[in-house]
Design brief:
By secondary structure, the chain is of the alpha+beta class. The protein has one domain: GHMP Kinase, N-terminal domain (Ribosomal Protein S5, domain 2), CATH 3.30.230.70. Helices cover about 30% and strands about 30% of the residues. The chain has a five-stranded mixed sheet with strand order 1-2-3-5-4. Helix 2 crosses helix 4 and helix 4 runs parallel beside helix 6. It is globular. The termini are far apart.
Length: about 240
């Protein structure tokens, strides 16, 4: 029995609330159960310096966790002078995930930065951030389209992410912290609306997992991401 009493293939309650940040071109407050992340999209009318003159834009991301997003206060990374290795890894993952579904030349020489700030963490912050970031990006593109800044929509597909793991010998979907901290295997799957795989991150915490178990987790993730994409479609309809 899962601590949350959910079925093995059940997501936590998920919500995607749009237009929550007054000044951002796009925003989404995403909740995966007790994991809450604020995603905002900010437009700059210039690409990063290394991309200037190449006729295409860029989508990038920054990720941070508020000091009391967790059970005990964590020090703000800004006070230490640089983001941690974990933070850098997650924000690069978010940026890569979004760029796979964006036609960068169609964006023009511009940059969109997605800020993902974890308000409350209960496992799966990176997967919630990716899922909410797509909505914020969508609304930023809609903001640009309404102002005749784009000739075509540069977003080619949806992208969403979900965690899976083996908990007490059972493959389960969308781990919360109670499961994540005790799981034999923990994996994150990023997938497009068309079902394409963007990235898989998987680790055996205790016992190595088999190919059959990996494929079982992939099946769970495919169903979970499909449901998340449906929620994205409903949110932006």
């Amino acid at each position: 029995m899962r601590p949350s009493k959910r079925a093995p293939d059940a997501l936590r309650p998920v919500s995607l609330e749009r237009a929550v940040a007054r000044y951002a071109e796009g925003s989404c407050f995403v909740k995966f159960g007790n994991t809450h992340v604020l995603c905002t999209a900010s437009l700059e009318e210039k690409p990063p310096p290394w991309l200037r003159g190449q006729g295409r834009g860029w989508v990038t991301a920054e990720y941070s966790m508020l000091p009391r997003a967790t059970l005990e206060r964590t020090r703000r990374e800004s006070t230490s002078g640089k983001p941690s290795g974990r933070t850098q890894e997650i924000q690069r993952l978010i940026g890569r995930s979004l760029r796979t579904i964006v036609d960068l030349p169609a964006l023009g020489e511009r940059q969109i930065t997605i800020d993902c700030d974890v308000i409350q963490a209960d496992g799966g912050t990176r997967t919630a951030a990716i899922t909410g970031a797509w909505v914020a990006l969508h609304d930023c593109i809609a903001w640009m389209t309404a102002r005749s800044m784009l000739k075509v929509n540069p977003i080619r597909d949806h992208v969403a992410a979900v965690s899976c793991g083996i908990y007490q010998g059972t493959p389960v979907l969308d781990l919360d912290y109670a499961e994540d901290s005790e799981a034999d295997t923990d994996a994150n799957f990023v997938m497009t609306g068309a079902g394409g795989i963007v990235e898989i991150q998987g680790t055996a915490e205790k016992t190595p997992f088999s190919q059959e178990e990996l494929l079982g987790l992939l099946d769970l993730a495919r169903g979970g991401c499909a449901r998340l994409v449906d929620l994205q479609k409903t949110a932006v309809a």
